[in-house]
């Protein structure tokens, strides 16, 4: 970079941006530019009004709305001249660039951009506007004077630059970048007019001569801006450029400064993106595969002029090549390859599909892979080929994409990029088509499948109805059988209960009846002796016998009365049971005292482990009866004959309003063979010691009936027995 000799009053670069521009400001300062940075439009206008601003760098984010209102105000803010404004955009677009240039911008820079590149653009712009040297008036230009100032700057420019003599229409100076852009030497370029550097017509069909005349007319009219133009390389290749033309008047000569930026790659990239979007849209709407593949290949060939592209498909059998697409080759070429099997020596495409990897044939005329297909390829002018398989997944080959050349050569880096894009898009299109074909097959057979399924469902329905009828009949039979079994169980239970009652009452009643019969005989004997004369000894003997008989009868009838009272407990009288709320700890404490008092010596130790604040809404009468029976069972059966036994009554709250109440002892326990029988009526292991084997039976009925709970037994022989009642805190109604 060189220091410029600007007028003393024009040394300030005004930066209008909210972003950090410290690096750019430092670089400008080293070149002895003044730098002023503002972040508002009004501040920018005020700075220009103070004079001394040579150029403005405007961040498009501060230029106003989409119409960029601040930009033309900045251009015309300096009195008597148009101020050059370079627009900086962090989100560049072609539409925005056009709006900026129409609004009067001297240039449009895409960010991010190195500070050195921005400074170089500033130097070129300011050189063209202010740094043209004074030379003697003449009809020809002094090139030595030009070399000292302008030519040095032109040679170091990163862009292609040509300086035209407007009168003659030929260049008077070019730089090396221009030589490279057109593929011509400076001597050749100096002899050619601008129209000689263009193809006959522009891409929109406008003749190049007409397009150049229009462009020059605008420049001569004072319009300075960037214009698109397509030129032609010496090889015939089209070169898309953005050109900036500035008309300079010097010593009665009109010079045209033309700066060209090659945007071919950018245009190709934009065309590729647009083409990709169009192809994906075609795939999405289900366009025919051949149409999609042809459009894809045309797009790829436009990206690399001179190449010919083809796509071959692999049959669903995974072995046979099928015709795909080759819009730039005669249909006969694809037809000749249709139906051949893939393999390790079947040209580039067949081999690529077989090996599932890229295959390069730099010279078809000599490559052994093309031995059987060489004549076919050479007949169509194909001399080199690079093929890549199109994969659906790691194990599925859909086809192959190939780039052909008409001369022996290796593929270029650009070709590698294009092939990857083409393979990706082709894979999407082919796989979509295959899936649609599969769906079509399903649709074709859908009616048949529905009819078959309907018939199957109809048969299943009939079978279900038959099975339902059979099940209904079986259920009716089961219900009758169940009712009969319940009736029999009730009768059996009633028979067992009656037999138990009869057995238990038979002994006291039989004893009483025997004694009464004996006393009847003694009474008859006494009466017969009364007429003959009753002796005192006979009367005393009778009275003694009568007294003994009376005692036997009273004892047996008393026992019968107790048995009848215990039998009455089997049928729980819930109607006479009073329901109320009570604290469980208080209720247990009141219950234990009479139970201990009625227990003969030796009495066990009673431990009460009742959680406090347990409140129940239940039937205290039946609950007390059940606990009394469990206490009596522990004393009579578990702790019989022991003076150091312990009975533990415990209670605690469970989840969902449930109370666990247990009565346990540390006595003899229950034998395993008796565990399943303890709740049976009249089952007892100590006849005569309890209430005829009804205590646990009555307890079970109370717990599961009136109290609405469950009872569980845990017993270990020699270690004791525990009965646990799981009761709702609020008993069922």
UniProtKB/TrEMBL annotation:
Cited PROSITE patterns: HIS_KIN, RESPONSE_REGULATORY
Ranges of residues in domain Response regulatory: 10-126
**Record-linked InterPro entries:** CheY-like_superfamily, GAF, GAF-like_dom_sf, HATPase_C_sf, HATPase_dom, His_kinase_dom, HisK_dim/P_dom, PAS
Top enzyme class of this protein?
transferase
**Annotated EC:** 2.7.13.3
User: Which molecular function GO terms apply here?
Assistant: ATP binding
Q: Does the keyword Kinase apply?
A: yes
Reactions catalysed, semicolon-separated, are: ATP + protein L-histidine = ADP + protein N-phospho-L-histidine
Coiled-coil positions: 443-484
This one is known as: histidine kinase
**Which species does the entry assign this protein to?**
Pseudoduganella chitinolytica
């Amino acid at each position: 970079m060189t220091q410029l000799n600007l007028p003393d009053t024009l040394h300030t670069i005004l930066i209008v941006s909210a972003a950090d521009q410290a690096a750019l400001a430092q670089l400008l300062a080293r070149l002895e530019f003044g730098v002023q940075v503002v972040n508002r439009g009004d501040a920018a206008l005020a700075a220009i009004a103070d004079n001394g601003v040579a150029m403005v760098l405007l961040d498009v984010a501060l230029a106003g709305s989409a119409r960029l209102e601040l930009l033309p105000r900045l251009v015309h803010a300096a009195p008597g001249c148009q101020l050059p404004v370079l627009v900086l955009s962090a989100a560049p677009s072609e539409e925005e660039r056009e709006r900026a240039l129409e609004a009067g911008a001297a240039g449009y820079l895409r960010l991010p951009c190195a500070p050195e590149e921005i400074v170089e653009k500033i130097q070129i712009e300011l050189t063209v506007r202010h740094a043209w040297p004074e030379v003697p008036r003449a009809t020809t230009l002094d090139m030595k004077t030009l070399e000292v100032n302008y030519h040095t700057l032109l040679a170091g420019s990163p862009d292609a630059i040509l300086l035209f003599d407007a009168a003659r229409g030929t260049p008077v100076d070019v730089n090396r970048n221009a030589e490279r852009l057109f593929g011509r030497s400076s001597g050749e370029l100096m002899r050619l007019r601008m129209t000689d550097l263009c193809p006959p017509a522009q891409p929109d069909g406008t003749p190049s001569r007409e397009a150049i005349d229009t462009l020059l007319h605008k420049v001569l009219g004072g319009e300075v801006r960037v214009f698109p133009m397509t030129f032609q390389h010496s090889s015939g290749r089209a070169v898309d450029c953005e050109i900036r033309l500035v008309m300079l008047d010097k010593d009665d000569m009109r010079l045209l400064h033309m700066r060209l930026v090659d945007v071919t790659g950018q245009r190709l990239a934009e065309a590729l993106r647009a083409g990709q979007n169009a192809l994906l849209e075609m795939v999405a709407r289900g366009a025919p595969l051949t149409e999609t593949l042809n459009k894809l290949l045309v797009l790829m060939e436009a990206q690399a002029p001179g190449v010919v592209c083809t796509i071959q498909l692999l049959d669903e059998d995974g072995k046979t090549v099928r015709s795909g697409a080759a819009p730039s080759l005669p249909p006969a070429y694809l037809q000749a390859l249709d139906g051949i099997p893939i393999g390790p020596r079947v040209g580039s495409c067949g081999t690529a599909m077989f090996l599932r990897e890229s295959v390069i044939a730099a010279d078809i005329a000599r490559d052994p892979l093309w031995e059987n297909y060489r004549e076919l390829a050479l007949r169509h002018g194909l001399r080199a080929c690079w093929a890549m398989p199109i994969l659906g997944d790691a194990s599925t080959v859909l086809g192959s994409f190939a780039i052909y050349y008409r001369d022996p050569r290796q593929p270029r880096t650009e070709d590698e990029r294009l092939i990857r894009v083409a393979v990706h898009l082709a894979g999407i299109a082919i796989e979509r088509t295959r899936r649609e074909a599969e769906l079509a097959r399903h649709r074709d057979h859908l009616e048949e499948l529905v009819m078959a399924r309907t018939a199957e469902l109809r048969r299943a329905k009939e079978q279900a109805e038959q099975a339902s009828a059979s099940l209904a009949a079986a259920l009716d039979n089961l219900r009758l059988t169940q009712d009969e079994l319940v009736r029999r169980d009730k009768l059996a239970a009633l028979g067992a209960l009656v037999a138990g009652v009869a057995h238990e009452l038979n002994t006291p009643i039989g004893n009483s009846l025997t004694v009464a019969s004996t006393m009847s005989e003694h009474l008859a004997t006494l009466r017969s002796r009364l007429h003959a004369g009753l002796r005192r000894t006979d009367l005393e003997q009778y009275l003694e016998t009568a007294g003994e008989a009376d005692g036997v009868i009273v004892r047996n009838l008393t026992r019968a009365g107790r048995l009848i009272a215990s039998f009455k407990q089997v049928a729980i009288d819930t109607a006479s049971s009073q329901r109320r709320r009570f604290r469980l700890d208080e209720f247990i404490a009141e219950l234990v005292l009479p139970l201990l008092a009625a227990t003969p010596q030796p009495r066990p130790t009673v431990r009460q482990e009742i959680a406090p604040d347990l409140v129940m809404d239940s039937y205290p009468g039946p609950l007390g009866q059940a606990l009394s029976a469990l206490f009596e069972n522990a004393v009579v059966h578990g702790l019989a004959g022991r003076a150091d036994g312990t009975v533990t009554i415990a209670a605690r709250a469970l989840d969902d309003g449930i109370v666990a109440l247990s009565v346990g002892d540390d006595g003899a326990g229950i034998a395993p063979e008796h565990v399943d029988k303890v709740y049976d009526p009249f089952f007892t292991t100590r006849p005569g010691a309890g209430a005829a084997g009804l205590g646990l039976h009555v307890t079970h009925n109370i717990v599961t009936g009136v109290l609405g709970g469950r009872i569980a037994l845990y017993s270990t022989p020699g270690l004791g027995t525990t009965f646990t009642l799981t009761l709702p805190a609020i008993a069922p109604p």
